[in-house]
Amino acid sequence: MKKRVLVVHFSQTGQLTRVLNKALSPLRDARHIELVEARIQSSENFKFPWDTIKFFDAFPETVYLDPPQNMPLKIEDEESFDLIILGYQPWFLSPSMPMSAFMLSYQAKKILNAKPVITIIGCRNMWIEAQKTMKELIGDCNARLIDNVVLIDQSGPIESLITTPRWMLTGKKDAFWGLSAAGIKDENINASSRFGERLCEKLKGEITDEPMLSNLGAVVADARFVATEKIAKRSFRIWGALIRLLGKRGSKARVPVVIIYVIFLFLLIITVVPINMAIQTIIRRLFKAKVAKMLLNIEKPSGR
Description:
By secondary structure, the chain is of the alpha/beta class. The protein has helices at residues 15-23, 25-29, 52-57, 59-63, 97-103, 106-112, 128-140, 157-170, 186-191, 193-202, 226-245, 255-270, 272-286, 288-299, and strands at residues 3-9, 33-39, 83-88, 90-91, 94-95, 116-123, 144-152. The protein has a single domain (3-220), classed as 3-Layer(aba) Sandwich (Rossmann fold), CATH 3.40.50.360. The chain is globular, with a radius of gyration of 19 Å. The two termini are 32 Å apart.
């Protein structure tokens, strides 16, 4: 009997769609697998590239998991899948609003109930806090996470602070001024087919709670971003709560505070973040064993 695999995803820029197409291409050709793909459609049109104010005005609802509703997925026999794959991008260190809306829906609870789940993430370089939230949402659906795959922008963290916002706000991702192109490198996207090849082999047998994608370099956590993400997430929640008091997303009353926050965020990036990263470098050198253990826990269940 064929294994039924459902892929649920949302890709605003199209990059994650490319990742999923390559990673799951072996499953499409496998005779023992029925691959069903469902692209999330939000009731709101999240246009790309973003308008600058709309981009930053989206963060309070993103971090507080208060997204607009999605259109229901049109899936036959939605409770009969053997494996669920969720493809998402982090927005403001949380799952994107369309993915959060799906995970909070009654339909997700039906589809994911008692099912094994694999998450596939495509992002700049910060995904740890978003995946913590995603794990909680998966648990709330009575599902179990058995694997995680993370593909990130291969340029440096300082470089991508320039190239990624440029891409998000203008749609331009090409190399410029000696800086690398934004996004995940083509060779890394192409190499992601190894995950589909492993899944094809594993899906010939029984699916258990054991990871299927171990020893494939599925996840490599970067110790430089662990504390930075925690600080930034706390900042998002504090400022997000304040902005939400001023009205709903899109309200003109929120715009002045959103602008103030953008200025605050810029100052945070050029002052506090470098100092924090310097401190974290010293801590990593002093406590190598503890840091290594922490990273192993973050990289679970798939690991490197």
